[in-house]
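Single Protein Entry

Contents — chain, fold
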Amino acid sequence: MELESKIEGLLFYKGEDVPINKLAELLKVNRGEIEESLNKLELSLSKRGLVLVRKNDSVVLGISGELSPIIENIRKEEISKELSKASLETLSIILYQNEVSRSEIDYIRGVNSSFILRNLLIRDLIEKISDPKDSRRVLYRPTFELLSYMGITSIEQLPNYNEVKKQLEGAINNQQQEEKENA
């Protein structure tokens, strides 16, 4: 498989921006090879509905500007729909944890949550923040608008807050332990 195809697959899987150095590390190649492959990927994507977006030292897959009107219609439709069971499950994890990474959400749910997170972000129910412990990592947290809509002034007012938070933290601790053992 060509390096640019591997990069495309990784960017699709991640669903968020990835530092170029991280791509080089994951694919076990040097930065120059990544840059060259990014240029090839950018060229091949120009014939399709995706684009390679570069910002600072990171890249992400995006939607071609020509699709903006269609995407806007889909977005409006998505916002007006009720939340799915999977969306509510993901939103609950974010509410009770307050700040949680996508990998932690995926571990707790047992499935990839990229598209659900995107939908919750579009609806302005959650927001992304940089992890204060590791600036390369993104955390998700509920927005003030969500808390206001729910009629709560603090996360601790959620039903069974302490009990649910403890269970979620136990699952996250298990994930971290597994990562250490696999490293």
The chain has a mean pLDDT of 88. The domain at 82-182 is CATH 1.10.10.10 (Arc Repressor Mutant, subunit A). The longest helix spans residues 161-182.
